[in-house]
Amino acid sequence: MDPLVAAIDQGTSSTRFLVFNAKTAKLISHHQVEINQSFPKEGWVEEDPKEIMQSVYECMERTCEKLCQLNIDVSNIKAVGVTNQRETTLVWDKETGEPLYNAIVWLDLRTQSTVERLINKHKTGLPISTYFSAVKLRWLLDNVDEVRQAVLSERAMFGTVDSWIIWCLTGGRKGGVHCTDVSNASRTMLFNIHTMDWDPELCRYGTGCFLLRNTGTKPVMSDHGLLTTVAYKLGKDEPACYALEGSVAIAGAVVRWLKDNMGIVQSSSEIEILAAAAGTSYGCYFVPAFSGLYAPYWEPSARGIICGLTQFTNRNHLAFAALEAVCFQTREILDAMNLDSGVPLTQLQVDGGMTSNRLLMQLQADILCIPVVRPSMSETTALGAAMAAGAAEGVEVWSLSPGHLPHVTSEKYEPQINCDESEFRFARWKKAVQKAMNWETSEPCCNSNGTSMLIS
Predict the structure, then answer these.
(1) Where does 70-178 have alpha helices with state H?
(2) Which long-range CB contacts under 8 A does 220-225 form with residues at least 24 apart?
(3) In this predicted model, what pLDDT tens digit does every residue of 3-58 receive, in sequence order?
(4) Which tens digit of pLDDT belongs to each residue from 303-319?
(5) Cβ neighbours for 114, distance < 8 A, ≥ 6 positions apart
(6) Helices 252-260 & 315-341, crossing angle to 10 degrees?
(7) Residue 87 — left, alpha, or beta (φ > 0 → left; ψ -120 to 50 → alpha)?
(8) What is the pLDDT of residues 151-167, one digit of tens each?
(9) Which residues of 184-222 are buried (b: 16+ CB within 10 A; e: fewer)?
(10) pLDDT confidence of 125, banded at 50, 70, 90?
C-alpha cells in the first residue's frame, strides 16, 4: 500500500486525527472529539490541558481502529504532523508532567492591564494585544503561585498547544521533547522574526477566522492593522517564508453562541437553513465582538452589538446577520491586505468547518466582490501539516515539488450582486463597528442602601 501520513488538528473547539495517502492526498480515515471551554470570569477563556491530551489520544486510537476495520496496517503511517490553535498558553511541571494551570485560550482578555504597559512591537511583528502568549505567561507568573514556584525551582515548562502535545507524545516526564516551530514561536511575542531566534530582550517581558497572504522570504510590516508572521520554514537550511495575517476572534464561534447561549438554533447546520429562509438581514447588523475586536482594530474594550432591529426582525434575520458578520470581518482584513501589499487579491481560497455552509460561501463572494474558491476536500489545514511531516528529512514520503503535488478539485463561488450593493451593506456594517468600539462598559446599579452607583 502507498505510505500514509497523519495529522493532529487540535483546534479551539475540537481535536481531530486525520490520515492521508501520501501519493494521492486522499483522506483515508479520521476521528473528531469536541473540547470543553470554561469561562471563570467575564472575558476569561480556559481549557483543561489534560482534556486536550485525552482528546488527542482518543482521536488517534479511534482512527487506528477504523484503519484496522479497513484492513489497513497502521505501520504504514510514516509521520505525524501537528496543526494547532495558536497563542493558547500552557505551563506544566517537567518532573511530574502535571499542568500547573488551565490552558489560557487565545481569546482570553484577562491580560489587558499587562498589555497597556507594553508598547514596542517592532521585533515581533505583532501589535501588543491580549491575543499573544507572552502576556498570558506574564499573568501566570504574577497570579499563580504554583507557576512562580516551578519557575524558581527550574521545573516549569512553557509552551503553546503544539509543544504540550509533542512533549506528551514523545515521553512526557520521561524524556519528552520540548519544542515548537517558527510559525508558533512567532505568535508568542518572544521570538524575533528577523533573526529567527528567541530574543533575550523580548523574553524579559516575563474559535476564529484567519486570513493569510504569503509575502515570500522578506517580512512585510503592516501599516493597516495586520500581523507580520512566519508562515513556514521547511527544513533547517531552507529560508523562512513570511505572511501578512488578519485574525478575527469570533467567526465560527458566533454560530456556537447562537446555539448554546441564545438557543436560536439547535445545531450548527441549522443556521444555513434559517438564513436562507430569510434571504436578507432586513437591515439588521451583528458585530460579535465578544472578546473585543482583533484585526485591523486591535480594540479589546469593544463589545458585541446587534443593531437595526425592528418589530419585523426574527431569528431568521439574526441568523443571516451572523453569517454576514463573518463575511464583513473577512472583508475588512482583505482590504487591509490589499493596501499593505499593493496587489489586490483576485480570488479567496478558503477551508475549515464553516466552508460547508454554501450560503456563507456565496455571501462571502458577494461581500468581497471576488470569487471564493472552496476545495472539495475541506481539511486542507490538516493536509498541509501532514504534507510537511511527510516531506521532512528522514521521512521523505511526500514530495512538495510543484510537479508532484496532488490535484485537489474545488468549487468556485462567483459574486451575484453588484459592487454598489456590497459597498452599501459594508458601509452600514462599519457604522455598527464604530458603535461597538465606543460602547460604554460601565453600568449603573444600586447598593444595599438603594442609592445608585457606577460599576465597571
Answers:
(1) 112-115, 133-143, 145-152, 161-169
(2) 220/244, 220/340, 220/341, 221/122, 221/125, 222/336, 222/340, 223/339, 223/340, 224/296, 224/335, 224/336, 224/337, 224/339, 224/340, 225/127, 225/295, 225/296, 225/297, 225/298, 225/336
(3) 999 999 999 889 999 999 988 889 999 999 999 999 998 889 999 999 999 999 99
(4) 899 999 999 999 999 99
(5) 135, 138, 139
(6) 160
(7) left
(8) 888 899 999 999 999 99
(9) bbbbbbbbbbeeeeebeebeebebbbbbbbebeeebbeb
(10) low
CA distance 29 to 21: 10
Question: What's the rounded Cα separation, in Å, for the pair 69 and 58?
Answer: 17
Does the pTM exceed 0.85? no
Tell whether the model's pLDDT for residue 455 goes beyond 50: no
Q: Give the domains, in start order, of the chain with CATH numbers.
A: 4-248 (3.30.420.40), 251-371+414-436 (3.30.420.40)
